[in-house]
Amino acid sequence: MEVKTSLLDNMIGVGDMVLLEPLSEDSFLENLKKRFDHNEIYTYIGSVVISLNPYRSLPIYTPDKVEEYRNRNFYELSPHIYALADEAYRSLRDQDKDQCILITGESGAGKTEASKLVMSYVAAVCGKGQEVNKVKEQLLQSNPVLEAFGNAKTVRNDNSSRFGKYMDIEFDFKGDPLGGVISNYLLEKSRVVKQPRGERNFHIFYQLLSGASDDMLKKLKLERDFSKYNYLSLDSATVSGLDDAANFRTVRNAMQIVGFMEDEMQSVLELVAAVLKLGNLDFKPESRCNGMDESRVKDKNDLKEMCELLGIEQSVLERAFSYRTVEAKMEKVSTTLNVAQAYYARDALAKNLYSRLFSWLVTRINESIRAQAKTRHKVMGVLDIYGFEIFEDNSFEQFIINYCNEKLQQIFIELTLREEQEEYVREGIEWTNIEYFNNAVICDLIENNQNGILAMLDEECLRPGTVTDETFLDKLNTICAEHQHFESRLNKNSKFLNDHSLPHNCFRIQHYAGKVLYRVEGFVDKNNDLLYRDLSQAMYKANHSLIKQLFPEGNPAKVNLKRPPTAGFQFRASVGTLMGNLQTKNPNYIRCIKPNDKKAAHIFTDSLVRHQVRYLGLMENVRVRRAGYAFRQAYEPCLERYKMLCKNTWPHWKGPARQGVEVLMTDLQVPAEEFAYGRSKIFIRNPRTLFFLEEKRKQCLEDLATLIQKIYRGWKCRSHFLLLKKSEIVVAAWYRRYAQQKKYQKIKHSTTVVQSYTRGWQARKLLRELKYQKKCEEAVTTIAAFWHGTQARRELRRLKEEARRKHAVAVIWAYWQGLKVRREYRKFFRANAGRKIYNFTIQRIMQKYFLGLKSNLPSMSPIDKSWPARPYSFLEGVHAELRRIFHLWRCKKYRSQFTEEKKAVYEEKLEASELFKDKKALYPSSVSQTFKGDYLEMVKNPKYQKLSSAVDEKILLADVVNKINRANGKSSPRLFLLTKKSVILADQKTGQVKTSLPLPDLSSVSTSTQSDGFFALKLKEGSSSAVKGDFLLSSDHLIEIVTKLHRISSLAADREKLNVDISDEFLVQFKQDKVCVKFIQGSPKNGNGVSCKRKNNRLLEVSVPTSP
Length: 1108
Ligand SMILES: Nc1ncnc2c1ncn2[C@@H]1O[C@H](COP(=O)(O)OP(=O)(O)O)[C@@H](O)[C@H]1O
Ligand SMILES: [Mg+2]
Hints:
elongated, 16% strand, disordered N terminus
């Protein structure tokens, strides 16, 4: 059989006590010591690990070590706690078995350290990943938090756990951690108010005071001085090797990682501070009239600060320390508290506050680390419960702790010793019984429901009447007197009557681990765990979220008159649950041993270790182990697991499982002494055989895996190949098609090219031929043309020559004829011919000229100035005359179409022209105006009806004129009427005749040369009208008025013609004076209007704007 024997290689002493030879207590101890001296602190008893506390750090927990032990068989390497952790983790992961790691030993033996090592190992080897790492980190970081609040320095251990802890780590099917659940057991809360000599309160108090910043301390109303707080023992406030300040930071960091909110952390610290403050409350008696003393808070400052911290109303709390309300059957009775009761109440409150805070912390941590997924979990439980404790002064707490250890020992015995031996018998294996101490009797002494110590304590607590610790002891003395593990001075058993090591107020129990003397003082109180309702109600009223949660019973709406379960009862119940829980799991044991009482390295106190070895039942453990079998398994799973190791059983065994296993074992040639066949199980004596089987199985599995791999690979390659082949055909088909297509395209292209070349060549050939033909044709044509041309030219030349000759002949003949004629007629021609030809020529020219003029005559409009140019200069006179005649003729034609009226108008216009043209600047503008005459429409306009009827003559002109005032030159409008006989001036508005001048009285009319409308009517001297003087008027129609006046006078045969003077200076007769009217060119500044100003007696100046 080939098995790696490294457990035995380089072994110091014996690594597994099972192999110890000879086996005795001395050799056992010697082996332990030898190994301990060589820093081998771990030793096996089969699968149980014995751990000796080295009290110094050893280099055996490095990551390299973790790697070394990872996935190795338990006995392969030298004993180590990692081997156990690895074994437990692997059977959890691979065999789906829930595990528990039971760590037992005395206080200070290294249980907590061991539990942390197991957890850190599992964390190191299990799965990795962001989420998993977070879970791991949270699980690991829950430790420092709980240690700060639940650990304290004791005389045995500087970091003693003062609570029991069981942690279930949950894993998924892959073995990755999902989360965890922590259960805590009975915190030793009495430590909050009082610590034994040489011990400290819980770490957190010291950590807070040393590690918190000044600012934080101020907020918590604390001072950094430990001596300021009654609850903090001073004799070992600082522990060497323990840096409270640094640990405080670690704890805060750990709380953060676990998931505490900043305000939660603050609340927790506020509660810690409140406990410290509470310890400082002092009470004084105050006499009451009924002679009773009533307690009063002495110095209220601490109370006030505490109330401020917790948001509690000071008066409420103060009252709760002076009075106590008892409620019974709807009745409320208030009794006063004396000073002692007040102190009791204070301490009870402090203990409750702290222990509830601790439980809350555990709940809160669980909230964070609880596994989220609802899938089935595998669980690894790690139990680190307080170790067996024997102090000088043992009280209720030690009793409870030791009871718990008693139960754990029981479960160890149950599973390893009794159960095992019973199984051999049951399975019919040959077996000689091994004696061991079964501590079931002690457990029964404590927990028996009828007469167990806890039951009696509960009975005492609930009993009416006066109950004291002494009555409890009495009761114990009577009931347990006969029990062989119970000892008491007052026992009826006279044996102890004179035992002075046993005081009167104590009882002693012989625990499996030794005798422990318990002082009964405080048992009843601690079991009752009473907190006055007034206090819990005061706490509930606090304006502080955390406190309110911690005291739900203080809610007045939920007053519960039933007594709460006692501490002992609760503990028994929770230990019961724990044991039940542990029994469902596969146990792994770590048995911690303390080598000395001095917490010192390198010291191995023989007696101390011997004692522990004894009470832990390690010798029995070895014996059972040696006599028995290391491993057992039912036939079915065994066959299932190893059937691949034999051809007959692989892959299927048809017969019963047992036969199959027998065939298997024979086939493997396992020596007969190495195993035994039980009724339903096979028992394997030595782990090595198991490892041999496992090793074979592993190899076989590898071979099988290789086979499966081979077949799978073959299949995979084949299917891959087939796929490739299929694809290749498709690709090839496509490619061929493509290639053929390409080739075809190429051939087609080449053919086209060749074809085109041939066609081109043929075409060119044809072209050449055609061109040649064409050239030939052209050449023929050209030659023919040239030939014809030559012929023609020759002919032409001939004809020309002929014509020339003919012409020459004709000319010569004509000349000859002419010469002949001239010779003949010369004598007649000379006398007449010249004149005749001249006349004929002139006649022809004139004829042409007139005909041309006829067709080119201008229009009939008299104002058309155009006239055709003359063709010959000798016709100039005629041409001009003809133009004049034509003009006169067309004027006559034009005039002939005039009516009488129009004729009169033109006559007037003509007369105006004669009078004013080139004389007065106003004239040109009047040419285009028609002489309308009656501008006022006298006949039609009803306004002038009266006036027109007053004038009996026909009105030739009616207009509005301005009469110039001779005095100042201002003008006023007048109606101006002209008839054949007179000029009438009438008022414009009324139409009343102002003046009527008979025309014969007028001598002349004067106007200026300029563009103004001024005119003066001058009267004949001596005439009837002359008395008024001459009239100076102005009108827009001056030209018409004067023309009409002149015309009337010229038409009247009986009168001399009216004179019209046109000059820029004339005299006007004003009454007696003659005034000179002078016209000047007005400067532009006077505006455009004509202005008239009387300059002096003799001068009237009219300024006329320059006409544009
Ligand atoms: N494996 C170890 N290596 C080094 N020191 C250890 C080891 N186990 C325990 N110790 C020391 O012993 C002390 C007490 O151990 P602890 O686990 O707290 O004891 P217990 O929990 O059993 O009361 C630790 O503080 C540590 O100093
Ligand atoms: Mg501990």
